[in-house]
Write a structure and sequence with these properties.
The protein has 173 residues and is mainly β. The chain is 12% helix and 38% strand. It is built from two helices and nine strands, in the order αββαβββββββ. The longest helix is centred in the N-terminal third of the chain and has 17 residues. It starts with a helix and ends with a strand.
Amino acid sequence: MKRLIIAGSILLTIAYACVKTEPVSPVPQITFKSFQLVDGYDTALQNNIKIGILEFSFVDGDADIGIETPYDKTQSLEYNYNVFLYPYKKVNGSYFKVDIDTTDTLFPPPFYRIEYDSKLDRVGQNKTIKGTITINIDYFILPSYDTLKYEFYIIDRAMNKSNVESTNDIGFR
């Protein structure tokens, strides 16, 4: 009986060792999870504001999510940001891209940074990381249109652009 258990254990170990891991692309993949619009308060300006909470999941096969360098205004947007949101206003059932002024300091463009975290470094054969990212979008002034949605994507350190995802409709009125 003891030999049978040992032989079974060896066979299971060999079978498990032969299972191939499915490679995950080094190009990040994202999936929209939710968008909520909640009431908030800006303590600096002492104003009521709206806060949009965007949540999406990601998978990256080579774990190179996150910007390592400090912000540098002389560099391109892709060097300084790695999450890009593009708003679309809904008019009569159709969506139209909202122009973004990247030089406006009062209303900064909807680009965000996922900072590098050494805890996400992986060694060995499987470097895949996955997780959920949550971004808060402060609306100090509500848009002039009543409904919008965002298309968004991320870029990793190798400048691989993820797939583009979309939020649900966001109603402001």
